[in-house]
Design a protein that fits this description.
The chain is an all-alpha fold and about 325 residues long. The protein contains 17 helices and no strands. The protein folds into 2 domains: about 1-160, Peptidase M1, alanyl aminopeptidase, C-terminal domain (Zincin-like fold, Alpha Horseshoe); about 160-320, Zincin-like fold.
Amino acid sequence: MLNISVSCRQVLEEDGSTDLALVAEIAAIPSEAALSDAIAAAGAPVDPVAVHRNRSELAGAIGSAMRDRLRRIYDVQYAAQRAQQLDGDTGSVAVGRRAIANLALRYLMAEPEPPIIALAVRQFTEAQNMTNELAALTLLVATECPEREVAISAFESKWSEDQLVLQSWFSVQAICPLDGTLARVKELMQHPKWDKSNGNMIGALIPSFVTGNAAQFHTAEGYEFLGDFIIEVDAETPSRAAGLTRLFTVRQQHCDPFQRLIFTVRCCGQSWTRFDAHRQGLMKAQLLRIRNRAGVSANTFEVADKILAVSVEAEVAVEAA
């Protein structure tokens, strides 16, 4: 972690770069998905809670060590966007300024204090583009502060008639790393704008939570929640339930909060066997419950059965070794 911290610091303190978007990309900490991939590639079991905790601590260390420098970077780049009227510009200069400013704000918000929270609130309020608005919203949603619920309500009111944008509102809350997010997801499933028959709305909430919030999903309660939802959907739309069952084999996604959150299922074979034995056992129990349910559809049965077969193959491989 020290090497990453030093690397990020060196890049952020490099002056005179004309490609701010590239600087922001290099200076960002690898995603939890990338870190988990590295752990699995090394042959160690993935602990998503530890990955999230260590990554958050690193972000906080960078934010504390470079607070003054990050604040100057943010102030300069944010002011330049406003002065040059680049808020809605999609050119490379505008994109770069937004990227580096949002990265600086992300690091600052890793150790939130009232003046820093005020920056996020200002950006959220003044935003003239979805990138900055979602960036600020995502940071506020992930912070335990009074401004959190105010921002959530304001975004909902502003975009309540735009279904595509509202999908991002659901997703931002689903990937919130704070405790209690699963309960929040269940509440959002009762929201009048959320429609279980709409595949895009399902994707904005359920898969976003499963693949974009590993620390909150990978619990007994998280697995049971997904199992319950799959069984419920299977009785109405078997093909959709089969697709949702594949979430047990989808690697964690890098949900960049500074872009629109669009979920894409990517089946990665043995990804569920990368976790520790306890978590594998909990997932296996849900897959067995789905597969063995009386009245299970042929589609969902086939998917669950194939996923369970991966577990058998992994056990045989371990015994052979």
